[in-house]
Structures are given as C-alpha cells and as structure tokens.
Amino acid sequence: MLFETIIMLFFTTLCDCQRSYDNYTLFRAIPVNEDQLRFLESLPDMYDAQMWIFPSQVLRNVDFTISPEDKVKFMLEANQSQMYLTTITTDVQKLFNQQTVKSYVRRQMTTFDWNNYYRTDDIYEWLKDLASTYNTVVKLFTIGTTLEKRPIYAVEISHTSNTIPDSRSTVVVEGGIHAREWISTAFVTYLLYKILHAPAEADENFQKIAFAYNWVFVPLLNPDGYEYSHTKDRLWRKNRNNNNGVDINRNFDIAFGTIGISKHETSEIYCGAKAFSERESVAMYNLLEKYNGTVEYYMAFHSFGQYLIIPYAHVKDHLENFDDVKAIGLEMIEAIKRRHGTNYVVGTAYDTVGYQTSGVSGCWAKKAYRIPYVMTFELRDTGVEGFALSPKYIEPTCKETVDGIVVFLNGKKRSVKSLHENNSSNEAHLKNVVLILNFVLFITLCFDYLMAFLFHD
Ligand SMILES: *[C@@H]1O[C@H](CO)[C@@H](O)[C@H](O)[C@H]1NC(C)=O
Ligand SMILES: [Zn+2]
User: Fold this and answer.
1) What pLDDT, on a 0 to 100 scale, did the predictor assign at position 156?
2) Predicted local distance difference test score (pLDDT) of residue 358
3) How far is the CA of 15 from the centre of ligand 2 (A)?
C-alpha cells in the first residue's frame, strides 16, 4: 500500500506524460440494496476507479472505470456482494482515441467546425477572430484569470435592430465548468456561432430568439481543467487549484458545503474551502454583477445523461416557479425529441440524476439575482460513450439542443408567472393605479375650481 502510494506520488508529481486509460474497463452497476450502494460509494478509495455516474439511489445506474490492474480484485469483491454488473467497454482509451482534436487556423473560420473537439488556445483564437470580424455585434471581454494565467472570456452578442427597443433582457450561457465534459464547450461555441449568424437564418423562431435578447456566452469557464483533460488526464473534472482541484460547480454561495459535496481535497466533488474561493466562480460572480437586474435566462451546459435540471439542487421540494419552468421543459423535451428521437427527462437534480447537490452555479444565480428561467442541461448521451462522446454526435447534439432552447426562450411567457415578470407587472400595475388616482384628483380639483369660479359669490 505504501509502495503504491509512493508510485502514485511519483506519477502525479514527476511524470509529465499523459495518463493512459488503455484496457480500463467501463462498468455499469445497478445496486439493489444500501450495502451495495455504500460499496460503490467507496470505489475511488479502494481501487483505481473513476466515477462516470455517481451513486445515487438503489436501482439507479452507477457507471465507472476500473484499471486493468484492479479489475480482478474488484470483480471478486463485487461478486461477493452479489452486485449486478455489466461491461460497457473493456478499453476506455480506445473510446477516447476517437475523440479527434483539431487545430484552428487563424482567420480561416471554416477550420473551426462541430465534427471535432478543440483545445483552449484554438477556441480563444477563434473567439478573437469572430470579435474582430464582427466587431459591431460581438464584444469579447475577460471576466477573470485562472491560476495558470489563462483568461476566462465572455462574449456578448447583441444584434442591432430598428424594430426591437434596447430594453432587451440578457441570456447568460455557461459552458465548460467541468473539464472532461467536452461536448459542453463544443455546444456553447455552436450556439454562439448560430446566434451571431441569425440574420442569415431561415428558421423564423430561431431568428426571433436571437434578436429578442442580449446574449452573453462563457464558452469555457474552466480552461485550466479543460487543458489538463486534454494533456494529462482525460477524466479530469475540477479546476487545478493546489493540484487536487476544486469542483467549481460546488463552490457557489447557495447552501454551500451542505449536501452532495465532499470536504476532502482529493474528492471529485470537493467544494473548496469556502464559497467563491475559486477564481472561476468569482468570474461568474463578476459577470452577473455586470448584468445585474437584466438577466432573464441562465443556462449551464454539462454532460452527460440527457436531463433538463431546474433549481434548486439542494432540496427535494419544487420551489418558486418550478412548475411553470417544468411545463416549458416538457415542451422542450418534445422539441428535442422531434429531430433525432433523443429522450430527455426534466425535473430538479433529485428528480433527474437522483441526488441533491449544493453550491451549484445556476441555483446561486436564481437565488441571488432573482433570475426566473434557470436550467442546467446534461447533454448526450446516457452512458454508452459518456464523456468519450464521438465527434460524429457533436452536431446532432447541438442541433437538437438548439431546438429545445428555441422553445425555452419563446416559452409560454405571457401565461407564465415568473419571478421576474411578477415584479415588473406588479410595478406596472402600481404605476397605473397611481396614474388613475392622480387623474381623479385632477378632475376633482378642476371641478372645485369651476364651482368656486361659477359660484364665487
Ligand atoms: C491491453 O490488453 C491487450 C489484450 O489483453 C494486450 O495485448 C495489451 O498489451 C494491453 N495493453 C496495455 C497497454 O496493457
Ligand atoms: Zn458537469
């Protein structure tokens, strides 16, 4: 054990190579009792194991990889507890190898596509080229800098229009908070590109949402982690703070440190020392402060599982306007399914992934800024390839997700009692009442004067 620890230390501190997942097996377990659930929860402590779907409840899938060295020992112990196990693949590295990573060639827009994945520098260069080519519509700015000195970019796209008054509300789109979920950043760059090119868009419904809002994208909130997932460890999830990293999506100031987190630095869901201890979460705080009061939609993109998740993740209850947002979510699911038959499920974190979590970005955004429409998307797939999603699925994933977003933003907005609209319609109502009272007062005064004038003696 000591020897293994020394080897691990050697590996993590001295080896500059990329971690190989050659012959790692991707397993799916379905626990049938609490003992099995606890056994699965302890996997990362007992074996060289990486969780793909975290344990939640009895009878719910748990997906994870196990190294070839630990496979026999693991299978023996799983067998002893009569665990139901299936093998998804016996060589995870082979799945990762098909995730082609392409380079972007400066000022050649067509070299950026959605049939490949891209590294941080390429994405950033592409964003800079977009900002300089379309400088009247696109604004690129920095909302923070990571420990490894990478900028965290935000991109604002605001189409000028004669017909739409400039009191548009803002849509915030967050991508790449979890390093290994590459489809997240791929999708956000796709949506950004499509919103930018909306004037040439044939679909009227899409054009409507592109023009109706002020769009703010953060395509890659965790560039340090993302780079690490490309160069060192494909399954890296957190940022790179103190080598162990912090799960940024547990670091926001909403029920911080209470549920669905770990206080151990080596855990995949380590929440950090305190809320907003991380530069990435602070960057998001800066962004929402900048647009304070105008944000109507906040969408965060993750993978995988095919879920639309509505706040709040730390409770089982359906709070605030949950029912209204869920009604729209059900329509979104229909729209998503129409294109390629992809099935989604909508609900709270507990309703969908089956466990509660705290310190989540969207939940904090909804609570702190009273943003009425907040949704976390767990994109494709349901675990066939998981984080190793093939490049051939990037475009279909992007297209169906855009279909869902068109419904989300067109929504049944007038009939929905949202947090935002409640406030503004109350205000408008109050204004009308004041106007009417003033008018009545004015008429009364006029009448008085008239009477005084006519009958002054
Ligand atoms: C993976 O397993 C195959 C078949 O057992 C073996 O030939 C190969 O050498 C293994 N690769 C590594 C890197 O261990
Ligand atoms: Zn995620």
Assistant:
1) 98
2) 98
3) 27
